[in-house]
Amino acid sequence: MRDQNNLSARILIVDDNPLCIKILSRLCSKWGFETVTANNSQQALDALSTTSIDLVVSDIYIPGMDGLLLSKKIKEVNPSTPLILTSGFEAQEIESKNVAKRPFIQKPYTPSEMHELIVNQLHGKVRKSA
Predict the structure, then answer these.
(1) Do the domain assignments include residue 3?
(2) Which positions carry 4-aspartylphosphate (predicted)?
(3) For 9-124, where are the E strands, in sequence order?
(4) What percent of the chain clears pLDDT 90, i.e. is strictly above it?
(5) Phi/psi of residue 13, nearest 5 degrees
(6) Domain housing 39
(7) Is 46 within the bounds of a domain?
(8) I want to staple 58 with a disulfide (CB 3.0 to 4.6 A). Which of 22, 67, 74, 99 is the partner?
(9) Which strand (E) or helix (H) includes residue 21?
(10) Using CA atoms, how far apart are residues 51 and 28, in angstroms rounded to an integer?
(11) Highest mean pLDDT of the ranges 64-73, 89-98, 100-109
């Protein structure tokens, strides 16, 4: 099922859990998106410096620096790159991290929930496919 909005995008997936990366990468491919993966913040920053990225989906708790600090670094380098934060931790712990101002999705999420959030974040950011 290709993305119904005909969006063409490259998504950077940042998570220290290989299974989470694998599942989200497969979903994104199914939706017609290209993916780049990183399992820590340094790999994510390296990918951002060498590859054109349209959207970042990052777990909040990753090795190196957390997803919140990573999001600040991304905004310094490329302020127009949208970012979605994810976490499997309890809502109370997430609220203490002050993620309310950022797009966030709690793990486990359904494919349709993630797809809707990705499309909403990409809308207007990337080119439409022919």
Answers:
(1) no
(2) 59
(3) 10-14, 34-38, 55-59, 83-87, 104-106
(4) 62
(5) -105, 120
(6) 10-122
(7) yes
(8) 67
(9) helix 18-30
(10) 17
(11) 64-73
For 89, phi then psi, to 5°, come to -75, 160
| pLDDT band at residue 110 under the 50/70/90 scheme | very high
Name the one residue in this structure whose structure tokens are 């950022």: 102
Q: pLDDT per residue over 56-65, tens digit each?
A: 999 999 999 8
Tell me the mean pLDDT in the region 49-62.
Answer: 94
Q: Could you tell me if residue 128 is inside a domain?
A: no
Question: CATH number of the domain that 74 lies in?
Answer: 3.40.50.2300
Kindly report whether the peptide bond that precedes residue 108 is cis, defined as omega within 30 degrees of 0: yes
Q: What is the pLDDT of residue 100?
A: 53
Residues 6 or more apart whose CB falls under 8 angstroms from that of 109 comprise: 86
Contact by Cβ (8 Å): 68, 41: no
Determine, yes or no, domain membership for 63. yes
Nearest to 28, CA basis, from 10, 14, 44, 52: 10
